[in-house]
Amino acid sequence: MQTRARIIINGKVQMVGFRTFIKNSADSLNIKGFAENLPDGTVKIVCEGEKAKITDFISYIKQESPSFAVIDDINVVYGSYKGEFSSFKRQGADVPSEDGAVLSVLKSFDSKAETMVTILGSMDEKLGSIDEKQDETIVILKDVKGDTKYIPGIKDDTSKLLGKQDKSMEILDSVKQDTAEMTNTLTFLKAVYRETLELKEKYEVLSRDVAAIKIKLEAG
């Protein structure tokens, strides 16, 4: 049954790549709608789809949210399906509209976190591809083993086996290439992670500076 849901997520859910995570999760379940940051620090989701999939969607958000995110509470209100959406989107500004150095750092931090989420998703796809190729290689090698068992005088008929061995080598070469790509991705991810930690430290310093300035202004 198609339904509509309005979901409000409370906690540390802004500037941590949370909406990108939500969009990727929604796309995987064919859920349409949008996610946006609200000025009070919450994230609002309005979505439509099969009720069972929306239930799975909410459970996945609770269990698999980005490591930087902290979910305190999720409020869900179901409504009538309207067929309003054709896709799922990240909507609205990244953070509440403000100016200053703190905002600049926070936006950069948000961007880095979302980059990490995207890279991790790409790594999952590559790992899946490698698993498939390894499975195919195992099947071919088992087939080769079967041929060697039943073909009398293997020296007299090696062309079939050599063909399968060549195919195995092609697959293994492809796996090697995927592994090299993953190594490059991991190297980049480490660099992004280091930059993210640096940004977090800068944010903490700026937060302390802002707090000190506020105290001075109030005292003055």
Please characterize this protein's 3D structure:
- The chain is of the alpha+beta class.
- The protein has two domains: 2-91, Alpha-Beta Plaits; 101-219, Helix Hairpins.
- The chain has helices spanning 18-28, 51-64, 101-150, 159-219; strands spanning 2-12, 32-37, 43-50, 70-79, 88-91.
- The relative contact order is 0.12.
- A five-stranded mixed beta sheet has the order 4-1-3-2-5.
- Helices cover 62% and strands 18% of the residues.
- Helix 1 runs antiparallel to helix 2 (51-64).
Helix vs. strand class:
alpha+beta
CATH C-level category of the largest domain: Mainly Alpha
Identify low-pLDDT runs.
96-102
Biggest sheet strand line-up: 4-1-3-2-5
Oligomer: single chain
Put simply, the count of helices is 4
Which fold does the CATH topology of the largest domain refer to?
Helix Hairpins
How far is it from the N-terminal to the C-terminal residue, by CA? 61 Å
Order of helices and strands: EHEEHEEHH
Question: What CATH architecture of the largest domain do you see?
Answer: Orthogonal Bundle
Choose one word for the global shape.
flat
Overall radius of gyration: 25 Å
Into which percentage range does the β-strand content fall?
A: 15-25%
Total of domains? 2
Largest sheet: 5 strands, mixed
Question: Could you tell me the number of beta strands?
Answer: 5
Compute the average pLDDT: 76
Q: What is the helix fraction of residues, given as a range?
A: 55-70%
